[in-house]
Give the backbone structure.
Amino acid sequence: MTEPVTAHTQRFVRSLWTLDRELAYARHYPAVTWVGSFSRDIEALGAWHARNGDPGWARRRRQVVSILAEADRLSALAELVGVGALPGRERMVLLAGRLLREGVLQQSALSDNDAYCGPGKAAALIDLVLDVVRACEERVDAGVPAATVEELDFSPLLRAREDVGRDDADGVRRHRAAMLTRLEELS
């Protein structure tokens, strides 16, 4: 990544998508890693989204990047001590990272519906995961064991990107309401 041609190209392209062999082996497609990938135009993208009807884009992006970074850090720790040794809040961060990776970032190469995602649906998918994770954290803070929350069936959340149309943000919001109702039932 530091050889002159690559470094010079990055200056002009202003972004980089880094592929990860481990993600590919885990059948996570596209295998673009969030750790080594970047864009130098985040502020411009946030301003564009704000002008075009999505003022929360930059906030959502910051939350997603923060959660993924913290989940990566905690998974390295969990490999050493085991997930069960982590406090409930940290276990919810690991859950959040998994839900973001599998429910938002991953695509099915075999699904025509999953080949494209409109900006409204993408925002709704991220809001779905962030709201569900927030509700999971609230349940753990209220005394529900982290293991009980982790055992909940999150497959409707994970299937939301394929179950609704390419631009169907309202369909994603219906999945959100159903998941939040399930979480409220935990005690």
About this structure: The chain is about 65% helix and 5% strand. Residues 12 and 182 are 48 Å apart (CA to CA). The two ends are 50 Å apart (CA to CA).
